[in-house]
TrEMBL record:
It comes from Eublepharis macularius. It comes from the Eukaryota. Residues 265-288 are annotated as: Disordered. One of its GO terms (molecular function) is 1-phosphatidylinositol-3-kinase regulator activity. The gene is PIK3R6. One of its GO terms (cellular component) is phosphatidylinositol 3-kinase complex, class IB. This is Phosphoinositide 3-kinase regulatory subunit 6 isoform X2. One of its GO terms (biological process) is G protein-coupled receptor signaling pathway.
Amino acid sequence: MYTLVKAPGIPDDLYERVYDFCKKLLTLPKPYCTIGLHYARQLKLERTIPGILYQRMVSAEQSLKNDSFPYQEKVFMFADPYLLSDAVCRAVVTEIKAARTSQCIRSCMIYVVEHVLREGLKDHCDFRTLQAILQEKPLDMIEHCFQQVVAAIEHAGRDMSAECNQYVEELEKIYSALLSTSSSKKDEEEATAERSPGIPLPNPNISFHLWTDEDQLWKELVLFIRPQSQSGEEDSLSQELDSFEIQDFDCCEQARFSVLSTDSGIERDLPMPGDEVPEAEPRLQRKGGIKKRASTLDCLSLLQTGSNGQGTKPAGKLHRKCGGSIMEPIAQMKRLHTARVLVLGDDRVLARLVQAYYSLRKRESRRAYLTPRLKVQFYYVPVMEEQPSSCPMEEYALPDMTQPCELSAYLGRVDPWYESNINTLCHMIPKLATMPSSPSKNSVSDLFIIDVIAYYVRLGLQPIFFQVYAVKLFFKNAVLEPAEDIFLIQLHVTLEEFDPTRDNLLMKKKTGVEVPGADVTLMYKKVLLSNREKEETVSLRSTGLVMKAIPSDETEDLVCLNVNIAEVLKTSNLSGRSYSLVTNKIRTRNINMQSTEQRSFAVCLDKDSRRVYRNVIGIEVSPCLEPSYCLQKTRDRRTSLPGDEDVGLAKYLPKSLLLPINTFAGIIQ
């Protein structure tokens, strides 16, 4: 499919063979039928209107202004400077700058005109002459020709019942007008001698960002749909962003205070223009009214759209959700902007992404600003330079279970295209960054990293959804308020440093052996394959535990936490009393852990040493709730009876927060 979009002059029999193959995929289960239907529609559209796929891709990716196709796309590449070295960042930025040499507006417009006329007119188009003519034209004439070509394509796309001959006739008129304004034949022959017969496909518009600000993703998305030239000064934009936190949501929560009014409401009581009003009395002014709020159904539609189009609440099945409709539903509002957010790094950068995504969803649930205007898709390219520093470990902790790129390894197991195209970049990008630069490295034809990323963001359309988990931490110091955080991949609990002065001396005297660990109580809901939950309570002595949200084996791809608990078992033999360490495994969605002897633990989230909580004596872990669901449930609670759950519009919203990561094929069954 990528070749069919890029290459001109594809034979009709090849189109038919690929189209028949896509139709055969419709008889297979998901994701085969979803992908087959999407590409069958694209092939049919391309055969009816030759050149439309290339035109739409380039026009959207390069943000070429036109009245007929106003869609825009952009790739936002984020990297954490704490995880990637300067050499890797420089290597990526160098390729992005080199790719921009073929992305000027003039060149992209010429590429679209050349490709469409060549595809639409076939043998009736002298391609070398057309290239020479377009190179001579000034920018205003090229833009006028580009507008005519896009208008002809989109008019034919809206009226699919019209004859293809009408579309070809429009292209012939544009081609004839270009020939009539060309220079002499001699100049054309001299120009065509140096022209290449190929038409490149420009790389998408990519911006590189070092993740230094927690709200950086939100700000970049706002600037994308409201550039500086359209939104005015930067100060006014920042003021509007700050106002998002206090508008709308607080208005519905806070009480209204009465204000004494001196307006009688009678028109004759208003002062005449010539009358003098004492300065002590305020002039009668019309205050700004309350902005009309959107209807309840419109708000519900926006909240559903912002929740990755999941629609109603999931049925509670344990199997992972993947895929989705590639085409937007007709009933939904058309969003003209698409932001493709791509992150580079190991699992720790995904933890930062999920925090930014959660903050974004909280903002949108209060006031939907980006949701009706922007589609956001997430992509992940693993990059690992060295073994990341693990969380604080101690002598009796669990064996090292840290894999730097667990999520990408899982994606590679379920999607072979992701494994062969994206996971290979994990160690390749750092190697390319350390290689000496060559004279041809800045040429467009040698851009390896950007070419693979462009292939990924263009054809990676099948999302796989990952459950986000919320954790509440209770500290040993009762003065401190409990902390709340979220994690995506792993939660690691280890017993803090062993201190003999605090240990139980009576136990030492009796046993003569220092028994590690602390007595804890676990309360959890054990999940079963029958989708039933069984509440259990266990008391044991443990040195720590690890909660994994990413399955290590795709044969048991269940949306739950795999908890590995390091339990200390006391044993007695002829040589005296001793202990042994065993690992217990449970599967759950909700779990509470409490230290019964006030021994504190260290909790590390998502393998990031920057996110370590110390002096913790209790934790509560549960699936993170979608902010829009929480807000709507709060509103519905005012009119519902005590004890009612998911009444009103809340029952139509997804309950859990899921992070979608785009892949090529989704989960291959």
